[in-house]
Amino acid sequence: MSGETQFFVELVSNGFLTGLMYSLVAVGFVLIYKSTDAINFAQGEFCMIAAIIVASTMTLYGFPLWAAVGISLIFMLGFNLGLERFVLRPMIGRPVVAIIMATIGLALMFRGLGPLVFGAETRPINLPIEQAPVIWGPFFMSQIDILGAAISVLFLAVFGWFFLKSRKGVAMRAVADSHQVSMAMGINVERYFALAWMLAGLVALLGGIVWGNAIGVDTQLAQLGLKVFPVVILGGLDSIIGCIVGGLIVGVCEAIAAGYLDPIVGGGTKDFTPYVLMILVLMIRPYGMFGKPIIERI
Amino acid sequence: MLQLNNIEVIYDNVILVLRGVSIEAPEGAITTVLGANGAGKTTMLKAISGLLRPERGDVSRGSIEFNGERIDRMLPHQIVRNGIVQVFEGRRVFEHLTAEENLIAGGHILPSAAKLKQNMELVYEYFPRLSERRDIQAGYLSGGEQQMLAVGRALMSEPNYVLLDEPSLGLAPMIVQEIFGRIQRLRDEQNVSFLLVEQNAKLALEIADAGYVMENGAIVLEGQASQLRDNADIKEFYLGMSGEDRKSFRDVKHYRRRKRWLA
Questions:
Q1: Scanning every residue of chain A, which has its alpha carbon at the shortest distance from the alpha carbon of B156?
Q2: CATH number at residue B41
Q3: Is the dihedral of CA A92, A94, A97, A100 positive or negative?
Q4: How far is it, in rounded angstroms, from Cα B78 to Cα A45?
Q5: How many domains does chain B have?
Q6: How many CB pairs under 8 A join A and B?
Q7: Which of A64, A124, B211, B220 is the most interior residue, by most CB within 10 Å?
Q8: What's the CATH class of domain A3-284?
Q9: Does ipTM come in above 0.90?
Q10: For B203-235, what is each residue's pLDDT tens digit?
Q11: Which of B45, B71, B100, B101 has the most A C-beta neighbours within 10 Å, making it the best mutation to test the interface with A?
């Protein structure tokens, strides 16, 4: 294989793995949007907080990885439950913009509080994985990326099954469709809101660990939310499949752009490629690739 | 027995919508409430199913009793568990779910998947058309199919009472006949009781056992369906028959004057 093709294959395979890790964060947006119709701009900050807790319990207090993850999980579930109960539930029935503004406010608050409580230095999350890359035919990948991608695929599959096949998942989609009618069907709407926020907390933890391991844990991790936003819009705000496909497209395009354009323009293409893609897709399908179109009977 | 005892409903603490409504809907019967737009019929149904509060409405006086138990302070999902379910005006199916998923959502309170399956088969038996269309997104079904789906979805939770809000709205007469026929069959074969709110008085009185007439948030007339059908005022104001020959517009004033007792 020529060096040129080798380079391309490498870019694509790495982009592929990164893309799946994007999908894992993106699914957090989708979970909230699917059940409450609001966009949670604090999802990146959730990831940051979860990762900070894992990293600081490990480095400061010397907990083993599994215990640190457990503590973080319990914290995130409780934290999101409280958030839903005391901040977001009172806003049910308000314009969606108000809820979105509230999440932006929360995001900024967390970004400030995180370092205040746990310190601002960058901490590692060390997973028991070797640094040596895996070489498999023409593919050349780091083990950490493979693990991240595997976790992503597993959870995306579980969430996909949950929404499409399980009764609770169907109820959750019903809640997203209409709160009032769902109530009239005997669905406890508030409980499903709480469930959605707890799931978002779980996903944030997974995303935080995977990404914290890849790039280190500090406030920069919160940028993940913004970074992943094009993925969500690209795939459609309410589609799990959209998350996966959107993540893959963004991951691969980003890697290719960085590989070929960066040497010419001097870097930075990785950061704006997702947004260019997002705008292109929005021009053709305003609700994203897999989003639900507005049904209008004539 | 579903009973409304002199209930008063106020929206936003100021707007009085129902002013002392008393209704009895006996078990195994179709009870209809007739009335014009804005009479308060839908508000009454929402009061029963507990859906007023999210709209800032409140049952401020009187009580709603179901088999002797007060239900006017219960949450909507508790009321469904008690066996009362509402079918909304204008169908309100979950558009982005398939017909079958709509039924699954309707059977949310059922304890087991086997029960869900069983009830689904029952719904398909009553509405075979839904069975053919089960995998289609509900938003793309025809109006009649959506209404069947809305009724079928309500039946999934095995209700004792179904509150039907204008099931004939915007549907072709033949479809309406079909749906009303199924409602009668459900009453006779499954012992489901209905509280049917309608503007189409003729149709409603054909299938109902008893009826009420509501105007401006109060009940102004009640009786067995057969009595109401023969009532001279109902005939004139709701069934469009004056009994005499054709009426000229000169008599409209006379109509107004005579109707005053109702309000």
A1: A185
A2: 3.40.50.300
A3: negative
A4: 37
A5: 1
A6: 81
A7: B211
A8: mainly alpha
A9: no
A10: 899 999 999 999 889 998 899 999 988 887 777
A11: B101
